[in-house]
Amino acid sequence: MRDLGTPVYKIGFFSEILHAFPRDTYICRVRHEGRTIAASFLCGYRDRVEAVWSSSLKEYLKVKPNMFLYWNLFCFAGQQGYRIFDFGRSTVNSGTHVFKMQWGSQTVPLHWDYWLPEGCAMPEVNPDNPKYRFAIQFWQKLPLTVTNAVGPHITRCLPL
Hints:
Layout: H1 11-20, E1 25-32, E2 35-45, E3 48-56, H2 65-79, E4 84-86, H3 95-101, H4 130-141, H5 144-154
Parallel strand pairs: 3-4
Antiparallel strand pairs: 1-2, 2-3
């Protein structure tokens, strides 16, 4: 998450989701030589399952853990009876989007509604906004120990 410029959530956040929806949430991981090198947090609802958060360790990308992870996620979803696999949101033409498209996925635009006070401009909440770009680049340069310690305390203040 640090390499993407995004603070991590508190572990309790995930624990609460697992506790609230024990039959519809899953953690799937890829292990290599006994070490978890990639993982995905899945949330299911009716006939759909979404890979809400997925990540892998950069130093293991040469062994393609994401390809192995997603192939197994598809198999797992089918075995659980899900008919639709939702890759989750991503910015069109980003690296994440290109990865998802290679699996034959379809891009479905998301539409956001805002209720703004009169005279206020629409917020530009995206990583291309110069307001966020500096913060993202700064975060990416911080030591991992710092981002892991500080990140959970600031994520609740960030826009989704």
